[in-house]
Amino acid sequence: MSDLTGTRSPLLGGVVPLATVQDASAADTIADGLVAGGLPVLEVALRNDYGLAAIERIAARGDVVVGAGTVLSVEQLRRSLDLGASFVVAPGLDEEVVEAALAAGVPVLPGIMTPSDVQRGIRLGLDRLKLFPAGVAGGLALIGALAPVFPGIGFMPSGGVNPANLAEYLAHPAVFAASGSWIASGERVAAGAGAVEAAAREAVAVQEAAA
């Protein structure tokens, strides 16, 4: 099974910041803040026209592990990898996207929400999956229900994770990582790299306490 140790990325664990990057200035602000805050990893959501350019710009720095999020097609996957993405995250479990990522030797986290989704992921050779949207689907209660049924499967909750519940999520033995959209939110980016840095430092502190 895949352990997220693909040829192009180190193991992902702990808190993984997620951002929809609006322009070059925002990309620099986010990357600078994450590096200064000790959390040099970023999932860039491909939700606007700048997403791919943001991946290329941040990957070129060499000091941030950057991945592509909201990947909906094999074409998006391939373009992201060509521009320097080191891992891939999808909102749902698309077999073609997963198989293309695995063939490329790249860590992939497809979104799941049901036991059937988990079983599909296992059949594809995955043992780490994104739970999305976690808050709507049941959050820790759902993870607690799935974990005994699927021992050895790790989950990354995304959607509904925030500073108030981050520690509780990370403390669960079936949670290997948590998506952090608040760290590089539009408001924080507008406030500058220092605001992103502060949020990153707080997340790292919670992560270390839960380890």
From TrEMBL:
A Pfam cross-reference name: Aldolase
Domain of life: Bacteria
Pathway where it operates: Carbohydrate acid metabolism
The UniProt record lists the keyword Transmembrane helix: yes
Keyword field: Carbohydrate metabolism, Lyase, Membrane, Transmembrane, Transmembrane helix
Segments passing through the bilayer: 131-150
UniProt protein name: Keto-deoxy-phosphogluconate aldolase
Organism from which the protein derives: Kocuria rosea subsp. polaris
One GO MF term attached to the UniProt entry: lyase activity
SUPFAM superfamilies with a match to the protein in the record: Aldolase
Similarity comment text for this entry: Belongs to the KHG/KDPG aldolase family.
Subunit-structure text: Homotrimer.
Upper classification of the organism: Bacteria, Bacillati, Actinomycetota, Actinomycetes, Micrococcales
